[in-house]
Input
Amino acid sequence: MKLNLMRSIIIHILDFFYPIVRRFIPKETYYYAACGGGNLVLSWFLFFFFYQIVFQKEVTHYYISWLGYKHVAISAHTYSSFSTFLISFTIGFLLNRYVVFTKSELKGYIQLFRYGLSACITYFLGWILLKLFVESLMIFPSIANILSSCIIVGFSYIMQRKFTFK
Output
């Protein structure tokens, strides 16, 4: 019941603003852009929160002898990126399934599997860009996160539309 109520509220809000862009983009694309854009902006704030407050810009060293490494260092931006991914993944799937791609005839578990696969691919590509921007180009992690996610957006849309919720 609560899911239907949330879905109804979100659709009413989106439909209220749709006449502004109706001549330029189809409704499904508008829903995807609005839901995805909202989730993206939320992920930027979450990344900043995790990086600045939760993980406090620290590098954590783990000593894992069974892998043959003397130590493995995991940076705060990697922790922040992964934590943000877990939250955005959940919100993104629910929005795409119940608001954006409601006409998909695929079963929910198939959609979840495909969404997970495409999300992991886009997360991995984004994480590589994040590491490149932060560790090689010395860009501040929150800015690097925004840049990397903006680069990945188009690829993500194509994956969702053509594969996940086909």
Summary: The two ends are 26 Å apart (CA to CA). Residues 108-136 form the longest helix (29 residues). The longest strand covers residues 60-62.
